[in-house]
Amino acid sequence: MRSITIDQLLQNNARWAERIKTASPDFFAQLARQQAPEYLWIGCSDSRVPANDIVGLLPGELFVHRNVANLVVHTDLNCLSVIQYAVDVLKVKHIIVCGHYGCGGIKAAIDKKRHGLIENWLRHIEDVYTKHEQEFDRQMNEEQRADRLCELNVLEQANNVCRSTIVRDARERGHDLTVHGWIYRLDDGILSVLAHATNGEHR
Ligand code: CO
Question: pLDDT tens for residues 149-186?
């Protein structure tokens, strides 16, 4: 891993802004007036899964919420507020729930070790595991189990988005809203579709 000083971050920023302004002089002025993203991304906090970069979107094109293991918990006002703002105010057309293989949060949820406070958050993943226990046969090694749980967790969280009052109300109002379940592979940088245009009725 390279080591980068905090000063370098600010220098990087200055160069980045300059580069964009050179290519498109109005870029920031236009964005400052309004944002109109069509996509909401709900992903993992993992530093290796940078939302905008992996789908090639610019500032202003992706509304983002990230937390450990990309969970959508029905009582999480933080996540729900993001969804509500994205749907009701920004009128996004697509919500993408994106997990990733090799997720530390998922692994920690089933490794039977103690992890302190975060166990209360990971408990939601344990619940997904318990709900789908029959999908995990004895032949699977630890990594295979974790990867399958990464997939099931995406489907479960996409379902939670669909079942939220926000999305149900929006759909009743005729808001054209599509929910997607995707998973990202750390070792090749490729996204796969697990649930296309889900309406929350799978599983
Ligand atoms: Co993760």
Answer: 999 999 999 999 999 999 999 999 999 999 999 999 99
CA of 7 to the centre of ligand 1 (A): 28
Cβ neighbour number for residue 57 with a 10 Å cutoff? 16
**Distance from the CA of 32 to the center of ligand 1, in angstroms?**
31
Q: 189 C-alpha to center of ligand 1: Å?
A: 14
67-98 pLDDT per residue, tens: 999 999 999 999 999 999 999 999 999 999 99
* Residue of 108, 135, 102, 104 whose CA lies nearest to 120: 108
Residues within 5 Å of ion ligand 1, judged at the Cβ atom: 44, 46, 103, 105
How far is 118 from 142, CA to CA, in rounded Å? Answer: 21
Nearest of 104, 108, 86 to residue 95 by alpha carbon = 86
**Catalytic entry in 46, 124, 147, 148:** 46
13: helix, coil or strand? helix
Cα separation, 78 vs 64, whole angstroms: 12
